[in-house]
Amino acid sequence: MRIIEGAGVWAGADGDWTEQLRTPDLSVGTYCIPAGGVDDQSPHTEDEIYVVTTGRARIVTPTGDAEVGPGAVIFVPAGEDHRFVDVTEDLTLLVVFGPAYGSRGPQSE
């Protein structure tokens, strides 16, 4: 058992990604985008779950878009283009990758 300190807690930098836990099968981290900030990430080679811990924005994918806020849980399959836009409040996301981030090949972020 391990308590993952700092996961899902605002770090305060634009596009700031911090990985707090890594095993071969998954990784956990925090991604922060300030209000008005730009999300310039590219699709990942791993499946991904986002949990919105603070803030409000809209997520846009080829299959649709949705308004998200605290408590929203979003699944993005490996390879799917996705982006957070219209960030109206500092956005903090707890992110879980399976398998671990970057383990299936180079990331293009």
TrEMBL record:
It comes from the Bacteria. Pfam families: Cupin_2 (PF07883). Gene3D superfamilies: Jelly Rolls. This is Cupin domain-containing protein. It comes from Herbidospora galbida. InterPro entries: Cupin_2, RmlC-like_jellyroll, RmlC_Cupin_sf. Residues 31-97 form the Cupin type-2 domain.
